[in-house]
Amino acid sequence: MVASEQNPTIEDVARAAGVSVATVSRALRGLDHVATSTRHKVEVAAEELGYRAHPAAAKLAAGNSRTICVAVANIAGWFCAQVVGGIEAVLSEAGYEVLVVGVAGPDARRRFIADIDRMHQRVDGLILVDIRLEADEAERLRSSSLRVVTIGSSYPGLSSVRPDDISAARLAVDHLLDLGHRRIGLIEGMRDDPMQTEVSWRRREGYIQSLTRRGIVVDPNLLETGDFSVVGAQEATHRLLGSSEPPTAIFAISDEMAMGARGVAVERGLAVPADLSIIGIDDHPLSNTVALTTVRQDPPASGARAARWIVEDLRNDRCVLYTHEVVTELIVRATTAPPKL
Fold this sequence. Notes:
This protein has about 350 residues and is of the alpha/beta class. Helix content is about 45%, strand content about 15%.
């Protein structure tokens, strides 16, 4: 693994060790919840690359407060937690503090954006995670003096890290179609999402595109909402399997919902994947435990990238417009197979 042209960064160590930047941060700081073998692998990678956390990193920070605000739509959600872990790892390395703020609902978002000028007195930069902005709110951020990066959505004039959710969904559904499935159930997020996040409707759009391209008419009876929760997915799966023409496969737009669907299938006496194939998106740490087929994304890497952009801009007293589209990967495990004849 080749390190950066300049001093090696925490992202270089993560790539060399094959772990997330958040794991590298925990391992090198001696924190709990890191396996001994993983900690050793990280330490070896850091040593080989010559990586050292700068002992006076705080003095290198160019901002006044040395604090970056991270605003998240779902502060308890797995995705947001992973993104924040990646952000915190890079900012800690660079000598910045992280201020995490939950922004749940349109009213909270409007209040948060309205307070942006006063916020600049307390923080040097802002990262928005899965928060969809209105046009005037995006303009308010563009006109502010804060360095701003959005994760999950993109807006003209603002730096953004964005998963290609449509392509990720197509990867999942095309896999099921290639196996021979034609009745594919969809468990999506919230149709009436108060935050209007893009992930749910974009992944639904990918599902629709895959079916349409194969000449399959979308059956509204195969579309259910799972509210991005295990319980919601369980209820959705009961409805799908209880219909007169149940699906032979289910695509859940998150791994947590896919695992909820798998539990219901087993509870109802169905063999997975012989009787029902199931696929998710995320590559959640538990997905490997239950051998879940999924589409991998790397939330900590997205957070790390956004944080690195802000750090570099602050250190070099510049404001560069960055964009990055996250690459996803199909991970085939043991929950998908051809349908029964």
